[in-house]
Automatic annotation (TrEMBL):
One of its GO terms (cellular component) is nucleus. This is SET domain-containing protein. InterPro entries: SET_dom_sf (IPR046341), SETD3_SETD6_MTase (IPR050600). It comes from Scleroderma citrinum Foug A. GO terms for molecular function: protein-lysine N-methyltransferase activity. PANTHER family: N-LYSINE METHYLTRANSFERASE SETD6 (PTHR13271:SF34), UNCHARACTERIZED PUTATIVE METHYLTRANSFERASE (PTHR13271).
Length: 301
């Protein structure tokens, strides 16, 4: 199937000063998973029975690349962080720890909700559209059931309300519910391990952050109170300067925020003392295993 993800990404990179070495290329890779579950193809507008997970990766052009060398130059103006995002004035700076992940997830989620209005749209449209299966979200219905096919149909709808998923087997037609079951089985393997201790309470913290910070912040930004401050600028209800342009946000949801959180947890880099944890276009498409002798460096100028 054809896709505009790569051309759109490369055009965005060119516009934003990202220089990619000619010895490498950014490619789209389809991981094909034949399935008995009917999956609706949003691009072709038809149901199909093959599941495609489209991934973007960086490959060499069949040419040996000696090292050390620089393969991609990424100006810091192209970095997406809590300092550079559209809602930056509304996000309290958190330099490290889980709070930094949550804050960057809010910054990223705000840009994702803006769609084509976002300055990073060319980059954002290349990111996975599904929630990345990080351990913190294994078996969590709220992170996987936003577009579940049986949420509003038949007697199973009530089961979703009680348990977060319909009580079905892995072979059910509902692939999203099957994904929740699979995640719960995977999480069971972590019981009585240090990993379980690390993950304990993490989902509750994400949910609480969404309720206390994400929802109020995005509501305030998408519907700014156009009152006048003493200096003549617009203020929100708290008296702080508010964003004056309505970004046309889509409806927010905890599952949508979990999607952004999963992208941050699986792709973000610490850039510098100013930006902190950030989304770095193209750098996040490389395979950073030690065997590749690949790493990212930040220049101070």
């Amino acid at each position: 199937m054809s896709s505009n993800r790569i051309p759109s990404l490369l055009a965005w990179c060119s516009t934003n000063g990202i220089v990619i070495d000619s010895r490498i290329e950014v490619v789209e890779h389809d991981t094909v998973a034949p399935s008995s579950d009917p999956v609706f193809d949003m691009e072709e507008n038809i149901p199909r029975r093959t599941s495609y997970e489209r991934c973007i990766r960086v490959c060499s052009r069949h040419e040996y690349i000696d090292f050390p060398c620089t393969l991609v130059h990424i100006p810091k103006t192209a970095v997406l962080s809590t300092k550079s995002c559209f809602i930056s004035p509304q996000i309290a700076p958190i330099p490290y720890g889980h709070g930094a992940h949550l804050a960057l997830a809010l910054a990223l989620y705000g840009e994702l909700l803006r769609g084509s209005e976002s300055r990073w749209f060319g980059y954002l449209q290349s990111l996975p559209g599904e929630t990345v299966e990080i351990a913190a979200l294994w078996g969590a219905p709220i992170a996987n059931l936003e577009r579940c096919i049986c949420l509003d149909t038949g007697p199973m709808a009530g089961d979703h309300e009680d348990s977060g998923t319909c009580d079905i087997s892995i072979s059910s037609n509902c692939s999203r519910c099957a994904r929740v079951h699979d995640g719960r089985n995977a999480k069971a393997w972590l019981e009585v391990t240090e990993a379980e201790q690390e993950l304990r309470g993490l989902l509750a913290e994400i949910s609480q952050y969404y309720t206390d910070i994400v929802e109020p912040t995005l509501r305030r930004v998408s519907n700014p109170r156009r009152t006048q401050s003493a200096n003549g600028g617009p203020e929100d209800a708290s008296g702080r300067d508010s964003v004056t342009v309505n970004p046309g946000f889509k409806e927010t949801s905890l599952s949508g925020f979990c999607h952004a959180y999963s992208l941050v947890s699986s792709r973000a880099f610490w850039v510098d003392a100013y930006h902190g944890l950030s989304m770095v276009p193209i750098a996040d498409a490389f395979n950073h295993v030690n065997e590749n002798h690949l790493h990212m460096e930040t220049l101070s100028f």
